[in-house]
Amino acid sequence: MRPFKHLKDHHCEGRRFAHPGHGFGDRQERRGGGRFGGPLGGALGGRGRLARLLEHGDLKMLVLHLIQEKPRHGYEIIKAIEDLAGGAYAPSPGVVYPTLTLLEDLGQVTSTTEGPRKSFSITEAGSQALAEQQGEVNTILARIAAAQPHQPTPALIRATENLKTALRLKLGGKAMAVETARRIADLLDEVARKIEDL
Questions:
Q1: Whether the Cβ atoms of residue 80 and residue 66 lie closer than 8 Å to each other
Q2: Residues 64 and 124 in one domain
Q3: 136 pLDDT exceeds 60?
Q4: pLDDT at position 131, please?
Q5: How many Å apart are CA 29 and CA 155, to the nearest integer?
Q6: Are residues 25 and 40 in contact, defined by beta-carbon separation less than 8 angstroms?
Q7: In sequence order, which residues have a C-beta less than 8 Å from that of residue 16 and are 6 or more positions away?
Q8: Are residues 114 and 43 in the same domain?
C-alpha cells in the first residue's frame, strides 16, 4: 500500500468554539492494531459501542457508500460516520485514510487534489461493487442506527455549548442594536421550530 499524506483539513486554528469529532481513536488504532488485526483492525477495535458492531470489511463498504452519496474529503467521511452514529463513535484518520488508499488501489474511487486536501469520488467499478453488496450496506446502516445512544451525544452537547458561547460573546460587553437582537431571536425561533418538527 503506497504512503499517504496525513490529514490536514481538520485543523481549525484560532477557533473559539469546540471542534467536532475531537479525539478520534487511540494508539492501538493508529498502529493498525485491534482485535481483528491488519490495517483496518483499529476501526473494529476502536472506542465506542459501535466499534464492536463493525465487522471485517464493514468500514470499506461504509466509506464507499458515503462517497457514492457525494464526493467527500477524508475528514468529511469521518464526520459523516460520527453523525450516523449520533456522536457515539468516529473512526480515526489512521484507519480512514488507509481505507481510502485501498479503495483507490482497487479502482473503486478516484481522488482529485484541492489545495492541501484530496476529494474522493466513486468510480463505475465502485458503484458496481457497492450495488453487489447493497444488502450488507443496509445491514451496517441499520446496525449503526440501532447503536445510537439514548442520552445527549457528545456532538449535541458540543453544539449546545457552541450556541451558549456564541450568545455570550454577542451579548456581553456592549449594547446590541435592536435589529441585531431581533435577527438573533428569529434565528433561535426558527431552530426551535425545526427541532420540534424532527
A1: yes
A2: yes
A3: yes
A4: 94
A5: 21
A6: no
A7: 165, 169
A8: yes
Q: Domain residues for 52?
A: 27-150
Q: 16 and 24 in contact (C-beta within 8 Å)? A: no
Rg (CA), the chain: 19
Same domain membership, residue 190 and residue 121: no
Q: What is the DSSP letter of 115?
A: T
Length of the chain, please? Answer: 198
Q: What is the pLDDT of residues 51-73, one digit of tens each?
A: 556 667 889 999 999 999 999 99
Give the DSSP letter of residue 45: S
Between the CA of residue 95 and those of 45, 64, 124, 134, what are the distances in Å? 11, 14, 24, 22
What CA–CA distance (Å, rounded) separates 184 from 168? Answer: 12
Residues in a beta bridge with 110: 121
pLDDT tens-digit readout, 160-184 = 888 888 888 888 767 788 888 889 9
DSSP conformation letters of 49-71: GGGGGPPTTHHHHHHHHHHHHS-
